[in-house]
Design brief:
heterodimer; A: 323 residues; mainly alpha; two-stranded antiparallel ribbon; B: 287 residues; ABC transporter involved in vitamin B12 uptake, BtuC; globular
């Protein structure tokens, strides 16, 4: 136990000290991006990993958050952060529209519905002038007050994202340890258990989905604040969904620290390949992502942390799976 | 009814027949082994590029590209089954969905990377221009695609219901263990199902390419259309897919005609959400 505590303290210290030690703008920005994607992937993990319902259209919630933040600025002159509650409310509503009918059916319906709704949202947004149509919406270029959360350096973003990630993981951890985590594990492990729980099984999956949607929306809002701009491709494109699920799956879906590990591997990889290969790199990066997802599914569905955990049978790495 | 209106309906039916054909492949796999192939739309995309390349390199139209694409895609289906699907279908749900979804990305972005993101198209007159029947203007390419797709879909239905092979495949889908005891090899039947399903996307893709834009990301749109078709038709049912495919073709044409071309996908995707809410077992299916 002390060993584990020591390990956790060391890990926390590294994460807090990273942007001070690696202090070039590129390194700080990279660190902030890793944390931002870790938030989104951890949010995905709640429904995709813990509840075992694979969303392939999670970008719709990300987009709600991002668009709400930019819309309240552009149309009402409010700081983008004021759009966060709106984005969360819309996301939870959309989660209900998808989740209520599909979570009673087999998991395929859920996956198909998420991808269709995400595309639907992208198509509608592209045609709605209020949401900037194909051009998109921008945030404040010059911060009016600190409330605008518009900084030139990536350092403030790094700590902001770190705080949000810590909150997300703490929430996930509490869920995992509580009644909801217990139900979700039972449902995931056995179809029969799920059926014997009856309506409760669908209800807990729906709660997980709504919580996941709300946190993903928050990640979208943070993204929009950092980049100060959102358009249908960056806010609602399918590739954002792909990033969330691949990071969680690579690190370990259903494990607390899985998405963070996945983000820490894939975000630098993508930055490097984009820098080395330029525009052509984008296509190649996603060829690679496709290959990685396929290989994980085929050989290691539990992800990397699951592999490590099985190698170290007595210590639980990542999430304590009621060990 | 004005001639334009009839023309819109006929156009929708012809397009819908092609939707029905490639959706039949998806519904066959889903009904038989409870696997949803998320790469299904990208299979169609590959077939479209096959048709495009066959024309570009060899100068041959659909008479050559349809059989080539069918053969190529059927082979891909068998390879995908043995290399991937057979393994992930026994694993957890997440492995199953991520497996075919990863394959979709791999195919889509390999084409994107190798051939570029530009929209391509075959020449308008590759099948023989436009002609007029009873005041309705018809594109020969659409007529050919619709007619062939109808025939192949009907043939597929007969194959599944009237032949020994079809009965064997049905036996495997009902109870793989019992089928095995009767001397039927589930593995082989499922591989054949993948060959048939992917071969159907090959034919459909090569046909649709004669009048549809060809791009690396077209598979996503087509996959969602196939999801709507299969859900509406009831999973596992080829006749259901046929009716649903024709219906969706008509709905798409009418919404493009009445509301505007950019809104046709919005209407079809919304229809999907409505089906899930109100009729998840499909129009003709049982729960």
């Amino acid at each position: 136990m002390t060993k584990r505590l020591l390990f956790s303290a060391a890990a926390a210290l590294i994460v807090i000290a990273y942007p001070l030690v690696f202090s070039s703008p590129f390194q700080q920005r990279l660190g902030a991006l890793v944390l931002l994607y870790a938030i989104a992937a951890s949010a995905w993990n709640i429904v995709g990993g813990y509840a075992g319902q694979v969303s392939v259209g999670h970008v719709v919630f990300f987009g709600c958050g991002a668009y709400a933040a930019m819309a309240v600025y552009q149309h009402f002159g409010l700081p983008p952060i004021a759009g966060v509650p709106l984005g969360i409310a819309v996301s939870v509503l959309i989660a209900a529209v998808i989740g209520v009918p599909t979570l009673r059916l087999s998991g395929h319906y859920f996956s198909m519905a998420t991808i269709a709704v995400a595309e639907l949202a992208r198509l509608i947004t592209t045609n709605v002038e209020f949401l900037g149509a194909a051009v998109g919406l921008s945030g404040p270029t010059v911060p009016r007050t600190v409330l605008d959360l518009s900084f030139t350096s990536a350092l403030p973003y790094y700590y902001l994202f770190l705080a949000v990630l810590a909150g997300t993981l703490a929430l996930t951890w509490r869920m995992e340890r509580g009644r909801m985590g217990y139900y979700l594990r039972a449902i995931k492990d056995s179809e029969r258990a799920a059926r014997s729980l009856g309506a409760a099984s669908g209800r807990y999956k729906l709660y997980a989905f709504m919580l996941s949607a709300a946190l993903t929306s928050l990640a979208g809002a943070l993204y929009a604040m950092m980049f100060g701009f959102i358009d249908p491709e960056s806010g609602l494109g399918i590739l954002i969904s792909v990033k969330m699920l691949i990071m969680a799956a690579l690190g370990g879906a259903g494990l607390l620290f899985g998405p963070l590990v996945g983000a820490a591997i894939l975000v630098p990889l993508e930055e490097v390949s984009n820098n080395l290969l330029g525009g052509r790199g984008a296509g190649l990066t996603f060829v690679l992502y496709g290959a990685i997802i396929t290989l994980i599914a085929r050989f290691q569905p539990g992800g990397l942390l699951d592999l490590v955990r099985r190698r170290l049978p007595r210590r639980s790495v990542g999430s304590g799976h009621a060990a | 009814m004005s001639a334009t209106f009839v023309q819109v309906i006929v156009g929708g039916l012809l397009l819908g027949a092609v939707y029905a054909l490639f959706s039949s492949g998806l519904t066959l796999i889903w009904g038989m082994m409870n696997v949803v192939n998320f790469a299904h739309g990208d299979f169609v995309m590959l077939a479209m590029y096959t048709a495009f390349l066959v024309w570009k390199l060899l100068g041959i139209g659909p008479a050559g590209s349809v059989p080539i694409a069918a053969l190529l895609l059927a082979t891909l289906g068998v390879v995908a089954y043995f290399a991937l699907v057979r393994h992930v279908m026994r694993g957890p749900m997440i492995a199953q969905i991520l497996g075919t979804f990863g394959l979709a990305l791999l195919l889509r972005y390999s084409v994107f990377w190798g051939l570029g993101a530009n929209f391509q198209s075959l020449p308008d007159n590759i099948v023989g221009g436009t002609f007029e029947v009873l005041g309705i203007r018809l594109q020969a390419s659409r007529l050919l695609a619709g007619a062939v797709a109808l025939l192949v879909t009907a043939g597929l239905h007969l194959l599944l219901t009237r032949t020994l092979l079809g009965s064997r495949m049905l036996a495997v889908s009902e109870d793989a263990t019992a089928a095995q005891l009767m001397g039927i090899r589930p593995d082989r039947m499922q591989a054949i199902a993948w060959a048939i399903a992917a071969g159907a996307t090959g034919i459909a893709g090569a046909l649709i390419a004669t009048f549809f834009y060809v791009s690396p990301t077209v598979g996503e749109t087509l996959a969602i259309i196939a999801f709507v078709t299969v859900s509406l038709g009831g999973f596992g049912s080829v006749p259901g897919a046929l009716v649903a495919g024709l219906l969706i073709g008509v709905i798409e044409s009418l919404s493009a005609f009445w509301i505007g071309a950019v809104y046709k996908d919005i209407v079809v995707y919304s229809l999907f959400v409505a089906v899930l809410w109100f009729r998840p077992q499909g129009l003709m299916g049982k729960a």
